[in-house]
Design goal:
There is one protein chain. The protein has 465 residues and is α+β, with helices and mostly antiparallel strands. The chain has 2 domains: 6-180, no CATH class; 189-213 and 264-447, no CATH class. The protein is 42% helix and 18% strand. The strands form 3 sheets. The chain has a 7-stranded antiparallel β-sheet with strand order 2-6-7-1-5-4-3, sandwiched between helices. Helix 1 (19-50) crosses helix 3 (81-98), helix 4 packs antiparallel against helix 5 (259-293) and helix 6 packs antiparallel against helix 7. The two termini are 49 Å apart. The relative contact order is 0.10. The chain binds zinc ion. Zinc ion binds at residues 356, 358-359, 361, 375, 377-378, 380.
Length: 465
């Protein structure tokens, strides 16, 4: 174990497989889907026959037999490693189901599996070669595949996931450990509060509001139009076959796919990837800026999934999901760790919008549509989101101080410097590579004596139906 703090991270690069390699990769994706569905059938059949619960090891053995069987020998022409991953994922999916954390694993439909993971054997040298602008990775059964290098990739590369997106572009996502941190770069402000709004906006306690790039909403409008086209074309095709598009089709019916429908589908795929790209870019710019500028970044714990679930109206639910709050938090966490910054998470029951930043009065009657409001107690005039951002900053700093006052809650407290302590507890991952529980360390309820609603640890256990 070395003294210098290191962490894990991932690098996503654009991959350029040769046509023959692309064909093998496509077959591999399809075969991974096939093996998943095969495993599902095996497990079901064994359970129905005599109540046998097939374990991951049982399935792995059966899979080996499958590769040797003459009628499924085609499997043996593909590399084994990505299928081990499939079977591991399958096992995890069932474990999550039995643990009440996920739904029952389902059949994978055609075209839904578009990735394959390969471990990079650390005993072999030269698997990944990187020169100035280009690199290549040796994949079992595929050969050497080239990729573009846009930034340095420090650390030890452990695995690579090859994928294809809706626009037909190929990517490789490398995971690395032992990546040295960039701690020590000075910040321009000691702390900043961020109020993440819907529609990809972010209000900063410095008084600034960051809006998503215009082309994002432009693409979204176009996407909705294409989706309407797609539905209309499918309905028209159904009518041509004598079906009623307003009713569910009889099982096994296949609607003839016209070239026009294919073109619309392709356009939708391209637009979706553009939207995802624009959004990812926007999020990266935002988080990079926050982490570069401030030593302590205070942000709200919105429990994105719970919020999206509980919201009844579909449009609102979509905008919550769209804003990618979870993704912003994920990026903040790893970038903060990388730079030695601190992320302080304010609990989701803290009334950041309703609290007056000037006098501390909680204005319970504030409605969601009130963009500006005047405090009934002190008369201060507030911009809703900027006021929230300032409150989040204040509360985040208060939490940091409160938690550092209780050294037993921080796992590795060294010395009396509150910030240093939390940089250890939150900012930098543990030597074993396990990310420290940065959101739990600073749980709002943990530091506040006030009683709040109890959070459940997970969804209630499901009853198998
Ligand atoms: Zn006030």
């Amino acid at each position: 174990m070395t003294d210098a703090p290191t962490l894990e991270r991932a690098y996503r690069v654009r991959l350029s497989p040769k046509p023959a390699q692309a064909r093998v990769l496509s077959r591999l994706f399809g075969a991974r889907r096939w093996v998943w569905n095969w495993a599902l059938r095996e497990k079901d059949a064994a359970w129905r026959a005599d109540g046998t619960k097939l374990s991951g090891i049982d399935l792995s053995r059966r899979y080996t037999a499958l590769r040797q069987a003459p009628e499924t020998a085609w499997l043996a022409t593909l590399p084994r490693e990505p299928f081990n991953q499939t079977l591991r994922d399958f096992d995890t999916a069932w474990r999550n189901f039995f643990g009440g954390r996920a739904k029952r694993p389902r059949r994978r439909k055609f075209g839904t599996v578009q990735s394959a993971r390969f471990t990079l054997d650390q005993r072999r040298t030269g698997l990944v070669v990187i020169d100035d602008r280009h690199g290549s990775v040796q994949l079992d059964g595929i050969g050497r595949v080239r990729f573009r290098v846009t930034a340095p990739m420090p650390g030890r590369l452990r695995s690579v996931t090859v994928s294809r997106d809706g626009a037909g572009r190929w990517f490789a996502c490398f995971t690395a450990d032992g990546v040295p941190t960039l701690a020590g770069a000075p910040a321009t402000v000691p702390s900043i509060g961020v109020d993440l709004g819907l529609k990809d906006t972010a209000a900063l306690s410095t008084g600034e509001i960051i809006v998503a790039p215009k082309h994002l909403s432009h693409h979204q409008k176009r996407l909705r139009r294409y989706q309407r086209h797609s539905v209309r074309q499918r309905d028209a095709a159904a009518r041509r076959q004598g079906l009623d598009p307003a009713r569910p089709f009889p099982k096994g019916t296949r609607v003839e796919v016209s070239n026009r429908m294919r073109r619309t589908k392709a356009a939708i795929g391209r637009l979706n990837t553009r939207i995802a790209d624009a959004r990812r870019d926007h999020h990266h710019q935002l988080t990079a800026r926050l982490v570069a500028g401030a030593q302590v970044i205070c942000i709200e714990d919105l429990a994105v999934k719970a919020m999206a679930r509980s919201m009844g109206r579909r449009a609102f639910r979509r905008s919550v999901g769209d804003a990618g709050l979870g993704e912003i938090r994920r990026q903040l966490a790893y970038k903060a760790a990388w730079r030695g910054r601190v992320v302080s998470i304010v609990g989701r029951f803290y009334p950041s919008s309703k609290t007056c930043g000037a006098c501390g009065q909680v204005h319970a009657g504030l409605r969601l549509k009130d963009r500006r409001w005047v405090c009934p107690a002190c008369g201060a005039n507030h911009h809703r989101d900027l006021n929230a951002a300032k409150n989040i900053e204040r509360e985040g700093l208060r939490l940091l101080a409160a938690v550092s006052g209780r050294p037993e809650r921080t796992r590795r407290s060294r010395g009396s410097d509150a910030r240093g302590e939390h940089a250890c507890a939150i900012g930098v991952s543990s030597p074993a590579g396990q990310p420290s529980s940065w959101n739990r360390e600073l749980d709002y309820r943990a530091a506040t004596p006030r009683p709040t609603r109890q959070r459940r640890d997970g969804p209630p256990p499901r009853v198998e139906g």
